[in-house]
Design brief:
single chain, about 260 residues, 4-stranded antiparallel sheet, 19 strands, binds uracil
C-alpha cells in the first residue's frame, strides 16, 4: 500500500542498470560499473546514480556515446540450424548466416546466444534480451549442452572414460562430460555427449583428441530446452514454460557468479 506522500512510479520506468543489461551492454553489475565510471548518459546527461530510472520508450541512453536500445518486450526463439550457415548476424563476405533463417525484421535486436560451427546442426537460441545471453554464456557458468555426434571409428571404453573425466585441449583440461554410446561399428560410432562449458569447437576437438574426428554433429539440447520436433531450417518462439525455464537458468547462473565475485 502507498504511504501518504509517496510518489508512485510509472509502470514503464526501468532501472538504468537493468535497461543496460537488457540492451546487451553488460551484466547488471558490469552496467553499474559503467554508470559509476561516468560512461552512461541519459538524454545527454551523465548518470552515475545507481537508483536512476529511465523510460525505455522515450529516453535516449548512450554508453560511450553509442545509443542503446531494447525491444519493448523481450523475445526468445529457437532455430534448428542446418549445416552451411555461419553463426553471425551478418557477413561482410556475403556468406549464408543464421540471420537469413530467423525473423530479424519482425524482432529487431535479435542476436544469437552462443555459436554452432558452420557444419553443426541443431538448437541455436536467439533473443532480444541481452541479460538472458549474459546469464547463459557466463564465462564460469555455462548451461549444459547435449550433442549427438557421429565420429570415425570404434570409440572404445578407455576413450569414453577419458572423455568423461576430461581431456587436455590446447586451452586446458575439459570439465567432466557425460558420454553415452548409442551405436557402434568398427568404422563409426554414434554417441550422445553433454558438456558444461562453451569453448570453441569443443566437441570436435575433444573427439579428435581421442582419435575419432567428428563426421556429423547436432545439438539436441541447450540447458532445459529441446527442439521438440522443430524441423531443420525452421524457428519457433519459446513457449511460456520454456521462457520461464531458460530465464530461471540464466538468473541462477548470474546469481552464482555474483556470489562468487563477492567472496
Ligand atoms: N562443439 C563443436 O565442436 N562445435 C559446435 O558447433 C558446438 C560444440
Amino acid at each position: 500500500m502507498m504511504e501518504h506522500g509517496e510518489v508512485q512510479e510509472p509502470a514503464d520506468l526501468m532501472r538504468l542498470q537493468k535497461y543496460l543489461a537488457r540492451a546487451g551492454v553488460a551484466s547488471r553489475r558490469g552496467s553499474e560499473t559503467l554508470m559509476t565510471s561516468g560512461r552512461v548518459t541519459v538524454n545527454g546527461l551523465v548518470v552515475t546514480e545507481l537508483g536512476s530510472k529511465v523510460n525505455p520508450r522515450t529516453d535516449q541512453v548512450r554508453v560511450d556515446g553509442v545509443l542503446c536500445s531494447i525491444a519493448e518486450r523481450a523475445v526468445t526463439i529457437m532455430l534448428n540450424k542446418p549445416s552451411g550457415y555461419i553463426t553471425n548476424m551478418s557477413d561482410p563476405q556475403g556468406r549464408p548466416t543464421v540471420a537469413d533463417l530467423v525473423p530479424v525484421d519482425q524482432f529487431p535486436g535479435l542476436f544469437h546466444i552462443g555459436r554452432l560451427d558452420l557444419d553443426t546442426t541443431g538448437l541455436l537460441l536467439f533473443s532480444t534480451d541481452g541479460e538472458l545471453g549474459n546469464g547463459l554464456l557466463h564465462p564460469r557458468h555455462h548451461v549444459d549442452k547435449t550433442y549427438i555426434a557421429r565420429v570415425d571409428g570404434f570409440l572404445n571404453a578407455q576413450e569414453v572414460k577419458r572423455l568423461r573425466e576430461g581431456v587436455l585441449l590446447d586451452d586446458g583440461m575439459t570439465l567432466p562430460a557425460q558420454v553415452e554410446i548409442l551405436e557402434r561399428s568398427h568404422c563409426a560410432t554414434k554417441l550422445r555427449i553433454t558438456i558444461h562449458e562453451g569453448r570453441k569447437r569443443q566437441v570436435r576437438r575433444m573427439m579428435s583428441f581421442v582419435g575419432h574426428p567428428v563426421v556429423e554433429l547436432e545439438r539436441i539440447q541447450f540447458g532445459p530446452l529441446t527442439l521438440h520436433g522443430l524441423k531443420e531450417g525452421c524457428w519457433r518462439l519459446l513457449t511460456p514454460s520454456e521462457e520461464a525455464q531458460i530465464t530461471n537458468a540464466a538468473k541462477a547462473h548470474l546469481a552464482a557468479a555474483e556470489k562468487e565475485d563477492r567472496m
